[in-house]
Specification:
There is one protein chain. The protein is of the alpha+beta class. The chain has 10 helices and 16 strands. The protein has 2 domains: 200 residues, CV3147-like fold; 129 residues, CV3147-like (Beta Barrel). The longest helix has 17 residues.
Length: 358
Amino acid sequence: MELTLEDVENLTTGALFVSCSVDHESCFNFHDRILSMLTSTDKVVRLVNFEDMDPDDLVVVIGFVNKGLPLTELVPVGDEFTTGISLLEQELGTRISAVVPLAAGNVNALVPILVGLQTGLPTIDSDPMGRVFPLLSQSTLNLAGISPGPFAVVGATGDSGVIRVTDSLRADHIIRAMAAEFGGWVATVSYPTSAARIQEALIHGTLSQLIQIGKILNSQMSTTDKYSSLSRQFGVRRLTRACVVDVEGLSRPFPRNQPDHPTSATLVDNVQGHIVRLEIQNEILLVMIDGAVEAVVPDIVTILRTEDAGVASLEDLWIGNEVDILTMPAAALWYTPEGLRLAGPDSHRLHGARKRRR
């Protein structure tokens, strides 16, 4: 299918909904670049399924990985991924046929759309996370035993390289270190795999789902009706409407190579006085209400503005502000024993965090 301007608007909103904590400005930057190309050229955005691919087609996963520096601090020039694709094609001696987003959330959900406009490559309506996790290794591709390498990286200052590595955790360590050395972030082109093989390992329909979520949130419906639609279609549940009373940076240890700067926020339910606690590290990992766990990674947690159900950010967690806190189930694979070991509470050092039974 060819994406319209409206689809891009909705995709951006949906991408922020499932990953509200990460830098919003980068999303809007890529949104604006995409709309500019769509309106000023005759190029089109193609969103395809694996039924549209030849089994032997070479597919790659593309996305940004950062180490402490938002993209807005050192804005991408725009050719980082096309350079990475060319480097990997030279390394492999074959042409790449399609791209997959590294994560169906935030800026990485928009990256393949812009790259598709630049290169003519279609974007496959799938991804290896179904949300955003902090580590490259926290992916369905790792669970399936697919090698991340060889992969190409292009840095914020133009440095680049091709790395031959087969272990996902090792790749995480290398990419995060290179991001720090290359200026704070890198554009990655990884997991080169045949369409037939990678199809078995991805979560499908994720970009379409973001478009549908965005369509609801961008509609003229009331906030109540928006929440009802999200609940019916995607299992979204509003946990509470609460007012921020405290935000603090924490100094607790964090896992190696995960983004640091953990944060905690305390809110109070204005109606019943419940005490709400958010634990945040790259994403909102945990929601507790009166000491009971209501949502915990891999659950998706987001915050919305109360007046219009617009996606809020961590900057909206200022003392005195009232927000809605919602949760949405992640892909079913993340609730299996294997998925929980890789990306569940223990992997984020939230040991013993188990949800209240309902």
